[in-house]
Amino acid sequence: MSFPIINRLVSRPRSFAAGAAVLLGSAGVVMGGGVSEAAAASPQTVAKQMIPDAAQYSCFDKIVSHESGWNPQASNASSGAYGLVQALPASKMSSAGADWKTNPATQIEWGLDYMNERYGSPCDAWDFWQSNGWY
């Protein structure tokens, strides 16, 4: 039996823990007689796992807080921007995974890649955001 999502997570070590947490949480996995940590993982918790540098996480947090309020389903009706990082067009996030509409870890991965490629880092993206009101 093949499990494409598990194979995708295993092939991406950077987001494995975060993706597994979201996957297990969405499946309602219960461990140790209580709700598992994965089931309770918020998008912020997932991002902290994916961004170990505290300064870079802080900058990422500021952008996402302004852009979507950490709502993975946030949508801008006028522009079509979508998700935690308000990708425009939203479908660009499909390059990080087919589950981009529903998986915060996929949205975070895409957002980090975008910030690193376009600006150099989340903090450089935040600097740009502060000057322009967008990134």
TrEMBL record:
Q: Which residues form the Transglycosylase SLT domain?
A: 57-122
Q: List the keywords (alphabetical).
A: Signal
Q: Where are the transmembrane segments?
A: none
Q: Give the signal peptide as a residue range, or say none if absent.
A: 1-32
Q: What is this protein called?
A: Transglycosylase SLT domain-containing protein
- Gene source species: Streptomyces agglomeratus
